[in-house]
Amino acid sequence: MLRPERMSKVSVTGSRGVMPTVIETIHGLNLVHLSDYDGSWEGFDNGNPIAGADQASEKLVTVRALQSTLDVSADDAEPGSIDEGWEAQLEEIRTRVNELDDRRGEITNELRQVDEKIDRVAPFAELGIDLDLLSGYESVDVVVVEGNVDAIDDAVGASDEIRAFETFTGGDVVAVVAAPTEDAGEAPIDDALVGVDVTRHEVPETEQSPEAYVAELEDEKQSLESRRDEIDTELEEIKQAEADFLLRVEEHLTMEVQQAEAPLQFATTDRAFVSEGWIPTGDYDRLVAALNDAVGDSVEIEELERADYDRHGAHAHTETDLEGTQPAADEDESPADADEQQQKAVTDGGSAVTMGDEPPTVQDNPGPAKPFEVLVQAVSMPKYSEFDPTIFLFLTFPLFFGFMIGDAGYGIIYMAIGGYMVTQVDNDAISSLGGVAVWAGLFTTIFGFVYGEIFGLHILGEIVWHQTLGIDWLPLNKGLEPAAADFALGWMVISVLAGILHLNIGYILDFFENLSHGFKDALFHSGSWILMLNGIWIWIFSTQGEAAKPDFLFETFASGGPFPIGFTGFSGLGLFTVPGLGFELTAPLLMFLIGLVMLIVSEPVEAVEALDVVVNVFSYTRMGAVLLAKAGMAFVVNLLFFGAYEDPNGEFHFLRTHEPSYVAEHYGEGAEVVFNGLMHSGTAALLGGLVILVLGHVVVLALGVTSAGLQAVRLEYVEFFNKFYEGGGENYEPFGTDRNHIEDY
């Protein structure tokens, strides 16, 4: 739907004694989007959480921590009930899990230390020297390093602090044994190796050989891993036994915390409370009935307003009589006290001082268009007071995407990927993107039949249109080959026409939104752009000044053009010749000038952007550019594998069923082989060509998303949305919780 679901502002006023029951009832309905009280009413303060909120929050944190430790997911449970002794059961689970998790953490830390020891001793195993021989000397200095052996040898030999040395090597590991001079420092070898890129290895404190030491460490590691596996098994058993319980308790505590903290959003006194919120208008009677059943006459429920749609200002108050709200009195509260409290909450004029928040937005789109809501929300949630552009994204985004890719093979893969995302991924946003991919893939497939292409090969045209249906004018050519170069420019013209239509829709939507300010405002603000857009482009496609305009504007739809509908430009649009200039003023130019004057009168600042009606439309030529680029990439991939030739008519043909020699035999000198193709160049070339064929089409498939997808999104967001859409709305989030795990509550 173009408009969000209609919302009503409701007020619930009552005594403090019934507030918990009211909160529980409203929470159970899961309908009311609560308004936040800002503390501005005289005599009213924000309420305090209901007793027990802190304890419930602590338990909820505990439950979620246990779920994280046990890796519990929502799929691990079936709906059920919670026993009365659930708190004791929760404490028992917490104790067991925390103890096991602590032990597991200790073992993991020990494993890390063992791995570090193994890593440290590995270089010594390369040397093949017992570890006790590498330390404990008083007259010589021993160092084990890893680096360039020659550089180490040269550096030690050049040291003035070393009178003699010996090196033992194993790979890049070097043990240096050096006899220092009498005046040497404490670490002569380290001093000698300053400036040499080496890694120092500390000698492990053990008398064992490196091999025996590593074997001992490996045994210790295996033992630790076995103990950790036992703990993991025990934790998994707890998960299997208690996942249902934990998910139900989490849901129960979530509802309890939500209800306990709800008064923070209320306006309260010592004896009364006022709660306001937004609700779908059609559910108002349901709210009233539920509260009457729960607390009877102890509360007063009032529909304060039904929000109207007004793009440029606050929502209007309509269809209800905005009277001041009277809090229901406690049994021991006198009418005078109640009246005094009411006076503090109303203006001098008698209208209620409501919590002045804007209505939240409920996007109300038909099922097929639902996935495209995620693309709208990626920009911003629609304001309640403006059109929801989702339906237009649904109608145009797949069309633009399919037009640019236009290949049945790629389209089928896009649909398959989208179908997987919809059915197999448990994430609303990704699932919605999957729905978008399905629609984009569907239109890519449809356009693939229009172009007669599957993975860049023109097979469908021959089979579907010519052989099966006997239609000669299909498929349409993308324009890569010399014989069909006019199609390349033709698709640019088609892109321009698509842009004109798309922008007209945006300006028309803006016109209808501005009608809330009166027809004159809508006519001057939005109608001016409509006149300028259509006036200038009708003139561009007119025969006035034809010699100065590109020929393809008039040849694209001419009888001999790529789209032969007989159009060669608008003519006969002249009105009169401007005196003294000899310039004929045509109807399209008059439209543009009238629109420009209207814009100057209504929005003088925007007049400097008048040429946007030309520039914005040119942006749509990127669709034709991507169409040619992607077709060219697929052509190159197929060219490398199959090879291709150009016939005497300038048409390209892949060598799918013929050898390159076929061209000379069949056409003689009138044709030219563009490339022989790897499939015709021997076994090794064939195998390499298959890799290129597959990877090449995978790359084209991926780039289709990043180029066609992003370009289509850009045209929607930048060119289209800017004409009528602002965004910045608040999502409708009703007070309540969907009960997925608790059967009765």
From TrEMBL:
GO terms for biological process: vacuolar acidification. It is a multi-pass membrane protein. The keyword Transmembrane helix applies. Residues 329-340 have a biased composition (Acidic residues). GO terms for cellular component: proton-transporting V-type ATPase, V0 domain; vacuolar proton-transporting V-type ATPase complex. GO terms for molecular function: ATPase binding; proton-transporting ATPase activity, rotational mechanism. Keywords: Coiled coil, Ion transport, Membrane, Transmembrane, Transmembrane helix, Transport. This is A-type ATP synthase subunit I.
